Amino acid sequence: MSTRAAPTAAGFASEAELAGRWGEGARGPLRLEDGRALKVIFPGVPGGASGPDYTGAIVEAGDDLLRGDVEVHLRASGWRSHGHHLDPAYAGVVLHVVETNDTGALATLGAAGRAIPVLVLCASAGVFGETFTPPCAFAAARGAGAEATLERMGLRRLRLKAARLAPLVESAGAGQALYTLILETLGGAANRGAFARLARELPLAALLERLEGRGPGVPRALAAAAELKGAAAVLVLRRAGLRPLASPGRRLEVAGALIAGIWPGVVGGWPGGLREGKLPRLRVGGLGRSAAIELAVNAVLPVALASGAWDEAGIEAAWRALPSPGTYGRLKRLERWLGHAGGRPFATAARLQGGLLLHGDYCSRGLCGRCPLSGP
Q: Mean pLDDT over residues 79-98, rounded?
């Protein structure tokens, strides 16, 4: 992904600024370093924290229609200096956008010597807003509601989550599976893997046994947090760049309070504090509304479905009733396209999850116009 750099003579202060210019839509005519004319049909959607800057782009390079990812660097040499030529995450890049072609090459070489076209985009190039209006936006403007489709896709995503968890539930039990997913979710993108290892190093059953042996007057939540922090001391945890409330120590305190509350005794099966429909028990000190919804979406309901701890109809009802935690950055453009006349296509967590599935299966794969919302 893009990294911060000093301002260059041409005017871009960072790769993020250059990437933003590409996403806004560069004013033509555009010409690749190999001499071919370039027409941008769809610039793609912004990538995540790692991997290419844009995914699912559609461009015409001469007579060739290219679908795939776009990577942005201030200098063309950034491709090799960042190790992208060896990284399989960049195997789908079809266009390399740079401010300066300091290598002088007509193309960037990807894995196995694949030639990737290079576009030099200057800071002086104009922009013209959206380069592409997708069929789903026209369908929304005609009054086609996206809510039912998004909700249906959201339920599909819930079932996919449950299917992925089935082996863990079968091998470790519903309680340990839920405990693992709670820790992974609280770990966030920065420490998800480390928190998953913590769940293995300090299993739920062992933690609950230790809590029963705590000293007199020691609150159960405080003891749980201390045990988790002690077990995590040997792990490599990311701390730099995180907000105070997202720091590993703070997240382990939240985990301790949550675990102490929903597992009141030594029984490590499905927690007695989470009877069917009792999702409000997820709210503990230090855990905001959005984070509690994320726990329900990514941990409680998928494990409940995979294990049969709750009735499936009750799980689906709870899934539909959850409010949205807030639209994710990668879905902002899709939200704008679908939200004709001020509508809120992602007003619930279920519809937001449907949007994530739509984005992953269609928008980010260059399949715009083929999704269920594109109309006939």
A: 93
